[in-house]
């Protein structure tokens, strides 16, 4: 199989809101893709053998290139499949800034609402895993606090729904105008999560007529065309292939990164996560990629965004 024939392989699970964000982007682009279902809780050996330890959801694989984080995935999809664009207006820079908020603070708010509201019914193992990932070392305390201050958290989210409603009140179908954009998916994944997983979510959204219609419209976009693939088959796709990523470090790298250097990369949050070790292959302002050897899939190149990730040199 030549690299250009390699399918988009999406490692995810149905309940993941961050995966839903990317599934909607694949829907906007009308892509055909292969679906590999991964476990909701670690260990995820068939995933981490590809990523080198990154355990979050989702991860995209194209041949021997592995893309971690929805920001990195959406950027790569836009480059490989530019039409239709998910940046259909001339606001790409501003919308990227806004997406740091939807994917960061706004998503974390929705996590607190969903976990805080279900604190008494969450399976212990799930509470411990997601608590530590999103609420730090004192996660048990954090869960209790989220439960106690639920009305405050909902008041915070309600403001965003009002802003969405205002943006859509001139009758535009999508947030930036007539065409669906990445920012629709980035806003939608938070609303989808709260709507589906907090019992008051549907009622809250119904307060905002334009936002409700927009939610239904984005939901009708669908996910493109997906077909299931086993994790073993996904690993076998990578085995005979090499990464198609051009090596090189762009000028003025603030960390002085160099091709061939050993680096470790991890989300720059206190989530108790393992860092990914590898040999630097490519770095520029927005992205970084390392070469590593998977014990099952052979040589792979693992990509991350620079924004929100800490790169350490050894
Ligand atoms: N910044 C990451 C966040 C990913 C994230 O936190 N995903 C959640 C699922 S929605 C997760 O990884 N949960 C733990 C897991 O799936 O193991 C991205 O945009 O991809």
Q: How many domains make up the coordinates?
A: 2
**Proportion of β residues?**
15-25%
Q: Report the order of strands and helices.
A: EHEHEEHHHHHHHHEHEEEEEE
Note the overall shape: globular
Total beta strands: 11
Low-confidence stretches: none
Helix count from the secondary structure assignment: 11
CATH arch. level architecture of the largest domain = 3-Layer(aba) Sandwich
Largest sheet: 11 strands, mixed
CATH topology of the largest domain: Glutaredoxin
CA-CA gap between termini: 36 Å
Which structural class best describes the helix and strand composition? alpha/beta
What is the mean pLDDT?
A: 97
The level of helicity is 40-55%
Overall radius of gyration: 20 Å
Q: What's the CATH class label of the largest domain?
A: Alpha Beta
Bound molecules: glutathione
Care to describe what's here?
By secondary structure, this protein is α/β, with parallel strands linked by helices. The protein folds into two domains: 3-84 and 226-313, 3-Layer(aba) Sandwich (Glutaredoxin), CATH 3.40.30; 92-221, Glutathione S-transferase Yfyf (Class Pi), Chain A, domain 2. The chain contains eleven helices and eleven strands. The protein has helices spanning 17-28, 45-51, 70-80, 92-117, 124-135, 139-148, 150-168, 182-197, 201-206, 209-221, 231-238, and strands at residues 8-12, 32-37, 59-62, 65-68, 225-228, 248-249, 262-267, 276-283, 287-294, 298-305, 309-313. Strands 1, 2, 3, 4, 5, 6, 7, 8, 9, 10 and 11 form an eleven-stranded mixed β-sheet that branches. Helix 1 runs parallel beside helix 3 (70-80). The protein is globular and about 55 Å long. The two termini are 36 Å apart. The model has no long low-confidence stretch (mean pLDDT 97). Bound molecules: glutathione (GSH). The site of glutathione (GSH) has 12 residues, from helix 1 and helix 3. Residues 16-18, 40, 55-57, 69-71, 103, 133 line the site of glutathione.
